[in-house]
Write a structure and sequence with these properties.
This protein has one helix spanning about 30-35; strands spanning about 1-5, 10-15, 20-25, 40-45, 50-55, 60-65, 65-70, 80-85, 85-95, 105-110. It contains 1 helix and 10 strands. It has one domain (about 1-115): Metal Binding Protein, Guanine Nucleotide Exchange Factor, Chain A (Beta Complex), CATH 2.170.150. The longest helix is centred in the first third of the chain and has 7 residues, at about 30-35. It has a 7-stranded mixed sheet with strand order 6-7-8-9-4-3-10. A 3-stranded antiparallel sheet has the order 1-2-5, with no helix packed on it. The chain is mostly beta strands and about 130 residues long.
């Protein structure tokens, strides 16, 4: 089991299942949503996600057609995103995890969109878009 919280602690969750392949996304939407050079995301099954507290604190923003970003309305911390075309999975924002993760990132996606000042030097494969 994994657990996580937002920055202010208003939102808490548990994951009763596996966390999928970890990817580092450099697309402009992820950069803007996280206020950083990239986002580190992994798929989880919606059925494995349990909101422990903070349901009324969660807010949702449709960042592009069919893509919904869910975040804490108090502190702004991104929690997960969901897609209309994949109703079985959420894409968890791994920075909100409080439990150590046993596996790290496997690739960089949308590297063609990365911030010009960001230098990637970890040796992981880089893809211009999603492979």
């Amino acid at each position: 089991m994994y657990s996580g919280t937002c920055l202010c602690g208003s939102v808490a969750y548990q994951i009763h299942g596996e966390i999928g392949e970890v990817v580092i996304c450099h697309c402009q939407r992820c950069r803007k949503a996280n206020g950083s050079a990239y986002a580190v995301n992994a798929p989880i099954k919606c059925a494995d996600f349990e909101l422990v507290k903070g349901e009324t604190s969660l807010k949702e923003f449709c960042s592009s057609p069919g893509v919904h970003r869910v975040f804490c309305g108090n502190c702004g911390a991104p929690i997960y995103s969901k897609r209309d075309n994949d109703p079985v999975h959420y894409r968890l924002r791994l920075g909100t995890l409080d439990t150590p993760l046993t596996h790290g990132p496997s690739m960089h996606i949308f590297a063609a969109s990365k911030a010009e000042w960001n230098v990637v030097c970890d040796g992981l494969p880089q893809y211009a878009e999603r492979p």
